Amino acid sequence: MPVDPAATGAAAASPAGRAPAMQHRITLTINGTRRQMEVAPWTTLLDLLREEMELTGTKKGCDHGQCGACTVLLNGQRINSCLALAVTKDGAEVLTVEGLAAADGTLHPMQAAFVEHDAFQCGYCTPGQICSAVGLLKEGHARSAEEIRELMSGNLCRCGAYPNIVAAIEQAMQQAGVAAR
Amino acid sequence: MNRFSYSRPGAVSEAVRAVQAEAGAKFIAGGTNLVDLMKYDVERPRRLVDVGALPGLDRIEEQAGGLRIGALVTNSALAYDPRIQERYPLLSRAVLSGASPQLRNAATTGGNLLQRTRCYYFYDTGTPCNKREPGTGCPAVNGVNRIHAILGTSEHCIATHPSDMCVALAALEASVEVTGPGGDRRIALADFHRLPGDQPERDSTLGADEIVTAVQLPPKGFPANYTYLKLRDRQSYAFALVSVAAALEMDGGSIREARLALGGVAHKPWRDPQAEALLRGRPATREAFAEAAALVLKDARGYGGNTFKIELARRAIIRALSQAAAGTPQPIADKHIA
Ligand SMILES: Cc1cc2nc3c(=O)[nH]c(=O)nc-3n(C[C@H](O)[C@H](O)[C@H](O)COP(=O)(O)OP(=O)(O)OC[C@H]3O[C@@H](n4cnc5c(N)ncnc54)[C@H](O)[C@@H]3O)c2cc1C
Ligand code: SF4
Ligand code: FES
Ligand code: FES
């Protein structure tokens, strides 16, 4: 349903200097919290998270589906948030890197494994790597280091931390009881 | 991105009407190709009609001994469906060789069919391009054309269709179910994509106001002797320079039926009925495969940067047919070539 932004007072999620946005009311459950918001149809999920929700853990690398830095879990499945228009995801559950740790701050086992294995250098790709790895584990199609590498190929790391990333994921997989093949 | 209006209809007929009613209206599914192109201003739709809420299109169903894949079935759901893996492993392998897990989770069957070329000039609005702006010329013919076509080109466009899924669908003789203002029709996959000719702006034979509702797979899936061999600049998360879908039905050491389709070499998945006929009834030998490859490539033409593809395709065809005949399909995770 288009909503008049002036009437709702919602911030238009459009770059400054452009025509007023035609807003759509959507509901998203972001990291467990249900939120209603007004979005312009051209707002990507990535921009919504970073610019509107102040959840800047999800990174913008290429903005074109080519790097994986923007990976989040949508209804439990990893996707590139830079190529998803927020308006098309009405009703969805979104999990970002900010939502992985427990309420008391205990790290998600995948986060802990990344820390333990020093699976990063600059850290820019890391939130995407971790969300992607959580999705990978859930999908359950990887059993070997080779398969981890193939099924993590959607996440580039310019620092080349790949060996430690694979080691971290292998550890988290073992902890989750996935038998190696 | 340009400004546009958006709607999310709940019925196929409504979606068709919405696109028909407004010039410049387009369907959007996963958005992984369309949103990318909109960010580059290559696509500038006035309205997006979201097909995501259309009922019943996210299922894979039994149909006439084969399977019917709804247009909204994601590439991941398709590739990992146990029926597809058992009966059409060629299709599963082809889909899993494309893009990345994240993209495959979002990308749909309909969107994959209609994804546009990755030609660099097509993406760059600062350059001419007959596909993007008819009549402006094709800088790729005498320009940077490493990824471009070697078969079925025209002077107006030498772009390739980038899909892996469609190459397998071509080999499997799938067909596409569509609905438009005039009702339903079915298009053989071979006739769905087209050669550029003097209308490179048209990728397919689908009307602008027609919607893809499903892809139909005929019963024959070639689950014993098949391979999808994809050659590219890096081992994953890259488009094919050349890919080969090979599917054989063997009778001892000889070939009862052969299907061969190539990706990365033309404006559409490339099939050659003559080469397939040549293989029929022949012993599965390297000589037979080499003859078939020579036939497929007899009219191939290089444009400088892509001339290497002719020899690459020849070798890929021979290797793919050898793998298929031996029942040793190309592994997905282990890129060591069997
Ligand atoms: C970095 C990157 C790498 C990639 N690598 C590969 C690769 O190696 N191999 C490969 O095959 N693909 C690859 N892809 C492409 C990917 O497969 C496509 O983007 C995807 O399949 C498109 O599906 P979608 O649902 O997201 O389509 P959308 O982007 O939503 O739509 C694409 C087009 O299809 C139209 N459309 C969608 N659904 C329908 C329908 N039901 N009826 C009529 N029209 C419709 C839209 O109007 C639009 O024109 C890659 C993409 C990216 C970004
Ligand atoms: S090859 Fe086709 S898409 Fe590429 S520049 Fe030429 S006309 Fe455009
Ligand atoms: S920012 Fe989305 S894939 Fe690079
Ligand atoms: S840690 Fe720097 S890009 Fe991966």
From TrEMBL, chain A:
Keyword line: 2Fe-2S, Iron, Iron-sulfur, Metal-binding, Oxidoreductase
Is Metal-binding one of the keywords? yes
Is Oxidoreductase given among the entry's keywords?
yes
- Report any Pfam family annotated for this entry: Fer2_2
Q: Which domain of life is it from?
A: Bacteria
Residue limits of the 2Fe-2S ferredoxin-type domain? 24-100
Q: InterPro entries annotated for this entry?
A: 2Fe-2S-bd, 2Fe-2S-bd_dom_sf, 2Fe-2S_ferredoxin-like_sf, 2Fe-2S_ferredoxin-type, 2Fe2S_fd_BS, Aldehyde_Oxdr_Iron-Sulfur, Beta-grasp_dom_sf
Molecular functions per Gene Ontology: 2 iron, 2 sulfur cluster binding; metal ion binding; oxidoreductase activity, acting on the aldehyde or oxo group of donors
Question: What PANTHER family does the record tag this protein with?
Answer: OXIDOREDUCTASE WITH IRON-SULFUR SUBUNIT (PTHR45331:SF2), OXIDOREDUCTASE, IRON-SULPHUR BINDING SUBUNIT-RELATED-RELATED (PTHR45331)
- Recorded protein name is (2Fe-2S)-binding protein
From TrEMBL, chain B:
Tell me which residues make up the FAD-binding PCMH-type domain. Answer: 1-222
Which keywords has UniProt assigned to this entry? FAD, Flavoprotein
GO molecular function annotations of the record: FAD binding; oxidoreductase activity
Q: Which superkingdom does the taxonomy of this entry point to?
A: Bacteria
SUPFAM superfamilies xrefs: CO dehydrogenase flavoprotein C-terminal domain-like, FAD-binding/transporter-associated domain-like
Question: Does the UniProt entry include the keyword GTP-binding?
Answer: no
Q: Which InterPro entries match?
A: CO_DH_flav_C (IPR005107), CO_DH_flav_C_dom_sf (IPR036683), Diverse_Substr_Oxidored (IPR051312), FAD-bd_PCMH (IPR016166), FAD-bd_PCMH-like_sf (IPR036318), FAD-bd_PCMH_sub1 (IPR016167), FAD-bd_PCMH_sub2 (IPR016169), Mopterin_DH_FAD-bd (IPR002346)
Q: What is this protein called?
A: Xanthine dehydrogenase family protein subunit M
